[in-house]
Amino acid sequence: MTAWSKGTVEALFTGVTRKFTHRLLGTTKSNPTDRGTYDSVAEAERAGITFDVLEKLFIQSIVDGYLQEWDTLRRGKRITLWEESVREKGVPRYLGSPDDLKLLLMKAVNRKNPATGQYAITNSRLSFLGRSYVSPGLLDRLRGREIDIYYDRRDISVIYLFLDGQLVGEAYYLEFMGHRVSVWEADAERRADRAQASVAATESRENRQRIQQEAPSGRKLLALETKRLERKRHLDHQRDDIHPSHVQATLQALKEEQTSALSSPRKTVGFLPPAVPEDDPRGSEIAPVPVRNLGGDND
Amino acid sequence: MTELGPRSPFVVHQKFLETPFEGRFQGLLRQAWQERSWHVIAAVPGSGKSLGIADFTVRSDAYKEATGTTRLAVLAIRAPKNAAREQALGMAMSAAFGVVPRMPWWQRRSWLVHILASTEVECIIIDDAQDLTLAHLALLKELTDNLAAPPYERQVALCLVAAHSGNVMPFKETFARPDVLWKQFRRRLATENPYCVVPGHTAEEVRRLLMTFEDLYRSQLPGLQLLRWTKTIFAWLTNPILDPDATGRVSMDHLTRLVTTSLRRVYEHGETDIDATTLQAVAELLILRRDEISFIEQVPHDELPPQREQT
Question: Domain range spanning residue B39?
Fold first, then answer.
């Protein structure tokens, strides 16, 4: 793509917008005056036009609509002109790194807060799309600096941080636990969670009200709880009579493992790959580097 | 855990390792010295530039005869900090010759040219050259020009050794300025490799270094097998936090810190070899939790600092 392609690209977008996009159900038109009382969202929902459907129709409108039209300037069908040009010159390929291309195609957001000039980096966490991203060691260094965030809407579990146009690292949203979650899925999840949270809060409030009402009869509850614990203790004593000895040993080991797992300090969640020893470290093929005393003779 | 009884404190070896980085770096210095050429040499912080310069200078056959004649073929100084005036660099150069005689600055300028010639200086190396100001560079040009002119007629190599980051080559923009001074400075730079970046260590080089560490510390940790962690260590030390410019190379400082800290920990636990848990914990400390603040409430039992090997 060069500066010369600008007109061609703009002509394509103009053609597709006029002849397809603005005639589609759910169009937002080009401005509020054109839109008038037309309810874009309701019409899109009625026609079932989701983003995926729109993407498919958009590509179809280019291939089957725009490219099949007659180009009066060049005197030919656009698809024929395209095919002839490809035969002659080939399709230009991206010559950079595939990883760079991925980043270039991502959506970018500048995180400069015009009011304060600072970012929402608090406690080594970066707030983005209402979610807290972490990147140990990196975010503290970026505090107060103007950064750009690149992200792919198909997976927002990772965002890429750019400082002065250079990739400086990634930040992760830990609550997705490494799973891929798109921005649409995440928003839908959040909406569903909000409804469920409301139901849960109502239930919890009712329970608390009931507990408060029952609180005066505490002595009776204490007696019932004591009786339950005593019965549990009796049954635990009878466990030796229930299972054979090897099963008891296994059960005891399982219990101890669970206890130790609960009591051990929580492992720090890190982003380093685990330490994996190599089976064949090829020690015999290489030689150590020469060593000597600082500025002195060889060892 | 292997019980070996009470152990003496862990000894950190203070040796000079002729690492592949040092080979590349000192090779450049040596080439500049031999050809009397001027270079800007850059490497990331912590790669071993200062240590390499010190080693190179010590091994440059400087001597002082009984008659008082001094020969100092390689003059290595560190760029003055927070001192933008040319006098600061002049004093730093004077100090390298020993006692600094008292004299006015106009006189010292001539004295410096004279002492550089009489001690047969052939190569000037300036460490931390990123701190040099325009006034310092102008003075360097003046001194070397005066040395090259009669009656001395001595060509001198100049190596400006700078720490760099962000893929920015130090001095490149300065020397590209249209002023006559910078045009002259630029003309004096070597035709081949005027601006050099010396990269850190590749995975294979890290493997060699780990083998060297194995040999160095085997007397304290008889079962030590570091080589098998090469890939893991290389992956960790090229993490964007330690390698923000994505060079894909490992600096000696990071490698030494990771290895010696891990070895000290396993040694203090009575082990004879390194294990994955310790290595991972130290790597996380070095990479992920480097900026954590520690509250020290305990009083250490040892009153003396840890023992270091006498060289």
Answer: 20-197
| Per-residue pLDDT at B53 | 94
Number of domains in chain A: 3
Residue B201 DSSP class:
B
Q: What single DSSP character describes residue A275?
A: P
Tokens encoding B154: 């001595």
Chain A residue at shortest CA distance from B204: A286
Q: How sure is the predictor about B1, in pLDDT bands with cuts at 50, 70 and 90?
A: very low
DSSP code string of B126-159: EETGGG--HHHHHHHHHHHHHHHSTTT----EEE
* Domain span including residue A147: 98-176
Task: Give the residue from B154, B171, B197 where a domain finishes.
Answer: B197
pLDDT tens column, B201-252 = 999 999 999 999 999 999 999 889 999 999 999 989 988 888 888 888 999 9
Of A275, A282, A288, the CB nearest to B279: A275
Among residues A146, A96, A144, which one has the least CA distance to residue A118?
A144
* Chain A interface, best mutation among B55, B237, B291, by max A CB count within 10 A: B291
Are B187 and B47 found together in one domain?
Answer: yes
Q: Is residue A282 part of a domain?
A: no
The partner residue sitting opposite A270, judged by closest CB among B214, B216, B288, is B288
CB atoms within 10 A of CB B106: 8
Q: Which amino acid is at B143?
A: L
Q: How far apart are CA B129 and CA B80, in angstroms?
A: 9
Give chain B's largest Cα–Cα span: 73
Residue-wise DSSP of A238-253: THHHHS-HHHHHHHHH
Question: Which of B167, B215, B280 shows the shortest C-beta gap to A272?
Answer: B280
pLDDT band at residue A269 using 50, 70 and 90 as cut-offs = very low
Domain boundary among A198, A222, A241: A241
What ipTM was reported for this prediction? 0.79
- At A36, is the secondary structure helix, strand, or coil? coil
Give the global pTM: 0.57
How many domains does chain B divide into? Answer: 2
Question: Which residues are B75's β-sheet partners?
Answer: B124
How many Cβ atoms sit within 10 Å of the Cβ of residue A142?
19
* Residue B161: CATH number of its domain: 3.40.50.300
